[in-house]
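hey so i finally got around to running the thing on that chain from the lab meeting. sorry it took forever, my laptop kept dying and i had to restart like 3 times. anyway pasting the input first so we r on the same page abt which one it is
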Amino acid sequence: MRLRLRDLVVAAAAVTLAVAPTGCSGGGGNATLDLGTSVSATPDAGTGSVQKWIAVFRIEADPRDMNEDTADVLAVVGGAIVVSPVACFDGLPADLPLDSYLLGVVAPAKEALDEIVADVDRTVIFEGHVRTMCLD
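ok and heres what got predicted. didnt touch it at all, straight out
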């Protein structure tokens, strides 16, 4: 059986179209980083949320006000960083303004979070187990 160039192009296009939607997010400017899956960071049945540990270093009304701190934390922790709206997390202190943004780090387990926080060497204003409500 001999394959023609047209058949190969059609097959390659079909594979690309089948895989492409899983490879990228349609989200815009405010996004969290995908940390992969783990036993303790699995979606809650029926809620579309993920539970994880978070340590928050800073809260600001405008995330651009945290650009320098964000770059510093990112250089240390890579994909464990989170810069997201406060409203994206269930379990944060109730007195935090929902229309503000947080800078922090996340991990699937408390022990992992403690290691990341030690590496960052910044004052933590909140640490706890939260549910992420904004998923890409």
